Amino acid sequence: MEFVMEKLAIMKQQETTHYRASNYLSQNAANATVNDRRALCIWGFDIMRICRIDRSIAVIGISFFDRFLSHYESRVVQCCLHRRREFQLAFISCLMISIKARDGKAVKLQFINEYLCKGMYHLHEITQMEIEILRTLSWRLNGPTAIDFIQCFMELLPSTIEPAVAMSLTEISKANAENAMLNYMSVLQAPSIIALASIASSLELLSLPLSYLVDIRSWMMQCTTSVTTEDWPNHHNDIFDWRRSGLINRHICTLTNYFRTKSVNCELICSGHEEASDFGDECGSFKWATSSLRKNLLDGESCEVFSPAA
Hints:
The protein has 310 residues and is an all-alpha fold. 61% of the residues lie in helices and 2% in strands.
């Protein structure tokens, strides 16, 4: 447990320093919109599912994307915010960096260009954008995501909780955190807060028996105090009464209310391509790329695309 608490302290320090994102879409030069970002996030999750890559890699890629665009003093970033073609290029580059850096797979440029982007970019454009992103992020690629915080919090779960319940709680919480990435609100929140809200919403959905109440409340207090100095609401009957506590729990309350309106079914999170229509004509290329990629993977034509990185 001591190791987990030390790990959480380091992760908390990371998320408040070099791994923060800002409200980049509020910049005057930004033509990209919240709907544009959402369309690409849905597409990114779909690509991960089709290629049988863990969805947490897409979460990492999205975090790279948000952090990169937060450096709006960069001329390249300004161009990405102003032009949708570059906005899309930055997203796919961040997605590929996350696959290489965190999933340990090499990705062929030809695959990116032909299958994912339908020939919209030259190979050197993709390579140059990846280099620019790495430089802008100062090669800091190991920051914590909400998924990482959820995994650490689950390691603190009391042994009195049955394994099946713990597994359900973990999976639903992760799905909530992934769903949160579709909402631009997640850019403005620390990953630890998203993780706590994801778990809180999952607890409401699971309707755990009263016998778990004391242990769960104690566990949530431990999770909260590990990433903030504020106290968890001190009420014995309702562990979800966020509104009576401090600022951090108001953030949790806002996110939890958001989760109540969304499905936690992982398949539904990335199945709605119709929602991507707000992205304009260019999004059609990515919708085509997704269906084309699915067909070729099923036909066995793209099995050599991903290989272990050297």
